[in-house]
Specification:
alpha/beta, disordered N terminus, five-stranded parallel sheet, 44% helix, Rossmann fold, 330 residues
């Protein structure tokens, strides 16, 4: 009996102590709310989300203290994006940040014409109809564009410098994605001056990789250039494992690719873009109109060379090329 009474008293005392803590843990209801619509398939998207949070902290925002972030992730199902965007609109949120390119931004645009939308990486936002122009986007959309496909020729050049014996480069692209088709065309235009032959190979779904790889080997490709954007990133391990098994030098677009085993990676710093997206959020929360905020192109680029991969392929990277690198993985 006495033990039961003591237990009740202890439980009651603990509940009194914990109640204020639980209340303190709840952020005030009137905090600005940011919707995060994740339409990305990138293997490194957790790192990019961290970069966005870092950008917010640099501007004085701390999640749960003076800002709320409502996250919605398509989880590999692009068809879910419209419903997820509609959820964010119903909450409602003060601004929607979209990731992974055009689909998420388009879904957000279909869900709202009034809530500001900030793109983190949108390929060609003018060509795809997301904004009227880079300087004066108009409407409720602004943010950062990407120029990844336009750099396919530069990646081809770097691949040629690192592995001059290469003659036939397989270019993996997604035919339904305008940006990756552009990357293929840029590579095809750059190849003749480098003495290279480009072998275009379509990949629409993950089920097509085995057949595509078999075709690649049958055609005698001796290097690999994926220009499939986030789709390539989502299947990064599979692509790089195939390249390593068949001793194919690869040229990719992001630092994360090089860290995962790609020979050379050259492109815009995605971490810098996601960090900078926070500045757009800050301006909008302070009253700026998204249609008046110019869409910015990437300004920070990085070249990363993986020497471990070079050694495994039996390649000696020219010293002049190593000096150009922002990072050399040893």
């Amino acid at each position: 009996m006495w033990g039961s009474i003591v237990g009740i008293i202890v439980t009651f005392a603990l509940s009194l102590l914990s109640a204020p803590l639980a209340a303190d843990a709840q952020p005030p209801a009137n905090l600005p709310k940011v919707g995060w619509l994740d339409g990305g398939e990138r293997a490194d998207k957790a790192h990019l989300h961290t970069a966005f949070l870092q950008g917010l902290r640099e501007l004085g925002y701390v999640e749960g203290q003076n800002l709320v972030i409502a996250r919605r992730n398509m989880e590999g199902q692009p068809d879910r994006l419209p419903a997820l965007a509609a959820e964010l609109v119903r909450l409602p949120v003060d601004v929607i940040v979209t990731t992974g390119g055009v689909p998420a931004t388009r879904a957000a645009m279909q869900a709202t014409t009034t809530i500001p939308i900030v793109m983190t990486e949108a390929g060609d936002p003018v060509g795809t109809g997301l904004v009227a122009s880079l300087g004066r986007p108009g409407g409720n959309v602004t943010g950062l564009s990407g120029i990844g496909p336009a750099l396919a020729g530069k990646r081809l050049q770097l691949l040629h410098e690192a592995a001059p014996q290469v003659a036939h480069v397989a270019v993996l692209y997604h035919p339904s994605c305008a940006a990756t088709v552009l990357g293929l065309r840029v590579a095809q235009a750059a190849a003749p001056a480098l003495g290279l032959t480009v072998l275009p190979l379509e990949v629409r779904t993950s089920d097509e990789f085995d057949d595509t790889f078999a075709t690649l080997l049958r055609l005698g490709a001796d290097a690999l250039l994926p220009v499939m954007g986030p789709f390539a990133s989502a299947h990064q391990r599979r692509i790089l494992e195939f390249a390593t098994t068949h001793r194919l030098p690869t040229a990719c677009s992001t630092r994360h690719d090089a860290e995962a085993g790609c020979l050379i990676a050259y492109g815009a710093s995605l971490a810098a873009q996601y960090r900078h997206a926070a500045a757009y959020v800050d301006k909008i929360l302070k009253g700026a109109t998204p249609g008046d905020l110019p869409v910015e192109r990437p300004i920070q680029f990085e070249l990363v060379i993986n020497l471990k991969t070079a050694t495994a392929l039996g390649l000696t990277i020219p010293p002049a090329l190593l000096l150009q690198a922002d990072e050399v993985i040893k």
